[in-house]
Design goal:
The chain is α/β, with parallel strands linked by helices. It has two domains: 81 residues, 2-Layer Sandwich (GMP Synthetase, Chain A, domain 3); 173 residues, Vaccinia Virus protein VP39 (Rossmann fold). Helix content is 31%, strand content 33%. It has nine helices and 13 strands. It has a seven-stranded mixed β-sheet, with helices on both faces. Strands 1-2-3-4 form a four-stranded mixed β-sheet, covered by helices on one side. A hairpin with a 2-residue loop joins β1 and β2. α4 packs across α5. The protein is globular and about 65 Å long.
Length: 275
């Protein structure tokens, strides 16, 4: 759609360099633009704003998600300079700040999968919860208790807001702070299920996840894996987990969550641990 909208405005060479995929979150659009087209950012933004009728803002993503707070630099290139919006997914409502708290619309299938796995009366620890989407979607469906942890105070505050926006069957408890410290202080051996959605640092926090999880509990371990063949990525992530886990573990399931680069994948391994 974007390439077609800019046909005749950009040269053929420029159009070929354009990254046509973009994220739409509520009425906000986030787009990546190659350095070679940086002088055309405003033109690209206005074209998107014109094509997507419900959009009120277009932002250029100037950096990857980075730092302990998992934020990114965004530059408005069309419309209103407001990074907060409302997002709906599988019957839930969320207030999202796309600049100041982690959020990805590309994890919707995984959020639904986890929500279906959670059982009534379970306790789940969501170690890197962001604005609480995994937590709230699980508690929307089941009479469970979810401890929703995040070190970013804005993310934790938005999680509290989002708890209030949704009628839940279970309960979500938002706690702001370092996941390891919170687990050591409050949540040792408490979880039936522990979610580790920080793939770039999962090995660093694995012992904390194990500490939070009861014997024969389940850990959802996310990681980034290089694989020459896409079909190999899941098995490679299983082997990696078994190599780094300090406790006996049984692999229940693995899959690719999404591609994050050429021959580079975000994967998840569901594991039962024995302590």
């Amino acid at each position: 759609m974007l390439k077609k909208a800019l046909d005749g405005i950009l040269t053929t060479k420029e159009n070929n360099e354009l990254i046509s995929a973009f994220d739409q979150i509520g009425d906000i659009i986030i787009v990546r633009i190659p350095e070679s087209l940086s002088s055309k950012k405003k033109i690209i933004g206005e074209a998107l704003l014109d094509q997507v009728k419900i959009a009120r803002s277009v932002f250029y993503q100037a950096s990857d998600v980075e730092g302990d707070f998992r934020t990114r630099n965004l530059e408005v290139i069309a419309g209103k300079d407001n990074t907060e919006t409302e997002y709906k997914e599988f019957g839930c409502r969320f207030t999202v700040d796309v600049k100041n708290a982690f959020f990805s619309p590309r994890l919707s299938t995984e959020r639904e999968r986890i929500a279906k796995l959670v059982q009534n009366e379970e306790i789940m620890t969501n170690m890197f919860a962001g604005i609480g989407m995994f937590s709230i979607m699980a508690a929307k469906r089941k009479k469970c208790t979810v401890y929703s942890l995040d070190i970013n105070p804005i993310a934790s505050k938005l999680c509290e807001t989002n708890i209030g926006l949704n009628k839940l069957a279970g309960k979500v408890i938002s706690i702001n702070g370092d996941a390891t410290k919170i687990i050591n202080d409050q949540l040792m051996d408490k979880s039936d299920r522990t979610l580790m959605l920080l793939p770039e640092r999962s090995d660093e926090f694995l012992e904390s996840a194990i500490s939070a999880t009861r014997n024969e509990g389940i850990i959802h371990y996310y990681s980034h894996i290089h694989a020459d063949e896409k079909s190999e990525a899941g098995k490679l992530s299983e082997k990696h987990f078994l190599k780094v886990s300090p406790v006996h573990s049984k692999i229940l399931f693995s899959k690719i969550v999404r591609a994050v680069g050429p021959r580079y994948y975000q994967t998840v391994v569901d594991v039962k641990i024995f302590k």
